Amino acid sequence: MAKEGFANWSDLKKILQNTDKNELIDIIRDFYDHPAENRQTIISRHTIGEKSDWILESFQRTIRNEFFPEKGLGELRYDVIRKAVMDYSEGSGDFLGTMELRLFFVENVVEFVNEYGGIDEEFIDEGCEMLRKFCEFLKTPEGQRFYPNLKARLLKLRSESKDVGYGFGDDIAYYVEDVEDLFEKDQRDSAIPVLNKNTCKRRFNIFIVRNHFIYTDFFYLGSVGKVHDYPNFDSFIHC
Question: Model pTM?
């Protein structure tokens, strides 16, 4: 229900539909020239699919300003930060940009704690949640391709947060190591050669059992396989 003295949206919509284009542009300009939140809303909702660095940077400045403004002390308003991330994510549809803002927020929390020795507990809790969401995004098929470019920042974040209290440093280490394990496992798996059954006639598996080298010789063309035991490496090499 609209507040008394204020037009509801349907009434306002009719007015705007009947407004001259140039006058409408003037209205939007006035809207843009006032609070920064209005400006960001317009920008984010009209850049779908675009990747303009200056747009992302404007949202980063909003986050940064809550921690380290150019003058004075930061106000640390989490609702402003959360709105900046949500407005950019929902308005732009930029997957990587949304990941960037989430990681950027956590980096600023850690920097602030290291600079001033503490921070409101709300920021610790939300920092953990923001990093969790970031890591979830990073582990998706779309996010995995960005890991090589983000790895150094994650490792730096873990290093710089190791002495942070509240359990925050431990949580950061957990999430970073979880991501590391995932990608290192993928790298190990990709390093194992995959043999084509149609072109390879045998596969060699080597096991070390009580200092003996044992390899199994499997033939794809009907043989059930053989096992050979060589008591030392030289005999195995020369077999």
Answer: 0.62
